[in-house]
Amino acid sequence: MTQRVDYQIIEDLVPEGATVLDLGCGDGELLDKLIHEKHVRGSGVDVAQEAVRACVARGLSVFHGDLDEGLADYEDGSFDVVILSFSVQQLRRPRFVVREMARVGRLAVVSMPNFAHWSLVGQLLLTGRMPVSSELPYQWHDTPNIHLCTVRDFRALCHDEGLRVEREIFLRSFAHTAPSQHLPNLMARIAIFAVTRGATVL
Amino acid sequence: MLIGPGKALDTDRYSVICSNVLGGCSGSTGPASVDPQTGKPYGTGFPMITVADMVDAQALLLDHLGIDRLLAAVGGSMGGMQVLQWAVAHPERLHLAIPIACAARQSTQAIAFNEVGRQAIMADPNWRGGDYYGRKPPAKGLAVARMLGHITYLSDEAMREKFGRRLRDIEDYSFSFSADFEVESYLRHQGVSFTGRFDANSYLYITRAIDYFDLTNGQRSLTEVFRDVTSRFLVMAFSSDWLHPPYQLKEIVGALRATHKHVSYYEVESHYGHDAFLLEREKTEGIIAAFLASGSRSMRVPPRAGVDGGQATPGREA
Fold this sequence. Notes:
heterodimer; A: seven-stranded mixed beta sheet; 7 strands; 33% helix; B: alpha/beta; Rossmann fold; two-stranded parallel sheet; disordered C terminus
């Protein structure tokens, strides 16, 4: 994949030289980018063997395991930034993981597909079938996305967890380079949240 | 198995150093060696050795070879313990550490198995307090120790798949104590063939060294032990290993991660048990090769004529 817009936005949220933990790091593309361009000290977690192999080949530090397991080793505030990029919808315990992210990281960055986007709602309404899109390219029976949510759902989760949403950035799609903050719950396919346990860091 | 041209430890690219272990019986000094003071084999007069002693001996070997720094130390089981000891005792000499299927401290269950093996040897009347050189060795005891060892290297699933309840060259049970089952015959064969190549006293000394292995000495936390470690780690575990289960490897990883050391953890799905580290070549060589290649790029070899980044590869012992 070339130049993911969401990666660029996440990179902009990460301070120069920060310590970063990337949950669900995949092949390590984002982490590699952060190390080279923001000079972070980074490490990743992923459950897939191929992902771990790819990260090791890039020279990255990576933990092979579940994301919640990947957080248990760390004390409060161990990282400047903990990232969960397009994986929250695949977690068995998303609420627990977001809570842990905000505990371990001084800043938690979560990017996710917004299930309330008009095209998805429209598909469901018009066809009566589970929506499929470029961000959610699976059929209902083979999707790894077991905990989809909307922009408002995620805000509510943060509220319930006592987390403070520092920044919200919305994208019309992976192809749109400019964020659009207009009617995000309906208009954004992709949402990026930066949350903290209270103390403002941005 | 991992070593050779084009393999994970590619001898076309790296120099591989693999020495026999201190206390062993295939080259290094051990209890079967002759004590220069008495002119007779040491037997149980051989000093008790530790994993740290083994590693110090390897470090002296490197001094002798004129090698300052290793690209990597790679090892499984006791070899993995040596890798950990290397990283802690000689951080400046080791760029990459690849401990496989091992632990930062020998577990209670693993000590228990070792003790039964030692008791089998010492209960053999031929052992004679370790003074059997030039006489009949305690082969029966050593064979039983090895049989027990082999059980701990396998897994329930691996044994079921490999042997099931199949009988050995007979149609029906013999209703005697001969080796009716394939698994019995396999273990007896493993036990007997081991006695031809291994010294019983070495078995006692080496298993004891493993039992005493505890990086923390029961005093410090593992995180503290790893404080001055500078090597990059690739820690590997095998899902069905019940001698050194994944949690023991994860403990090492957790302690390294807690202080933001460069560490990767890789868990291989395998039903071979502890033996997987010797058998799962396809599932392990890719990541080891990739780790070594990335390490070669990040290692600054000291500008010293004739010295390449070599590798110590403490192999599996005992």
